[in-house]
Amino acid sequence: MTDATLRATPSTAREAKLVTYARLAKLDVFDYYLSLLVVLSAVLLPIGGFDLAVLVTLGLFGLGAVLMTASLVAFDDLTGHRDGSDTANYRANPTLRRARRKPLVTGALTEPEVVCFGWLTAIAGAAVFAVAVATAPHAPQWTVWLIAANFVVGIQYSYGLKISYHGFQEAYIAALGWVMVLAPYGLITGRFDGFVLVQALLFGLGPLLFGVYSNTNDIAGDRAVGRPTVAALTSPRGNRRFVAALSLGEFLLGAVASATGVAPWWFVLLMLPVTVLRIRQFGIGFGPRGDILRARAIGFTAHRVGAALLVAANLVLAVTK
Q1: Would you place residue 10 in the very low, low, confident or very high pLDDT band (cuts 50, 70, 90)?
Q2: φ/ψ (deg, to 5) at 263
Q3: Which letter, b or e, does each residue of 253-279 get, where b requires 16 or more Cβ atoms within 10 Å of its Cβ?
């Protein structure tokens, strides 16, 4: 697929500008926002004591997260377009990775438009987060610092300091998921909980375990621009071991939590469907067929199943207390 072909897609040329900006913001990828359901399930019961202010806090935090993430991915696309990595990566597999998800690659948006969108959503996100903290039932200092640090680092992910270009990409992908659970829980309850921490860690591993498959697919493009992901820095064998370790670590986290009493004894059994999906994902991605993008798609399913099981775990625990 040539640059001319990428820019000559009729459907892209005709679509409304609003839809193009939605593509830029990656609004169809809602996986991080599932954290709101996980947190809600942890505080919902008993229903008689539920405070409607919780929904306001969750709604504001969620809106702030959407705006911040929109800014993050817009700046990520801007940097990827400027260094040529997005064009190279999307040209490599135009059927499975649709180029029109990258409006700069197709020419549907210009760089000034993306920069403006990135800063407007960043400013709006900061304002909404501030309102969420100011109106929350609780605002412990650790929660406020967590939100602020995550926001500052997120905007710098591929822009400004470009932390993802200095070896911290995988760490931030997971950390964003951790914050998306811990921060709103802290705003609502004012406390820190061991089982919620376990859930946050598992939730953050979900996006990481489809992100590392994306990185495996993008090795050539990332190496060309000096983006040091684990996949780009190591050998195929080293990368395979890294992904295997993450997949095993996800299972062990739940197992150890159940064994030590941080989580209910049955928690590790409840999460077994995710483990089965991880085994299948790894086999498809790193087995004889080496279908990395299909394995990546399974990662989305595994994360969504995992989020649903975390919700179930919270509800069962509340009912059986």
Answers
A1: very low
A2: -115, 160
A3: bbbebbeeeebbeebbebbeebbebbe
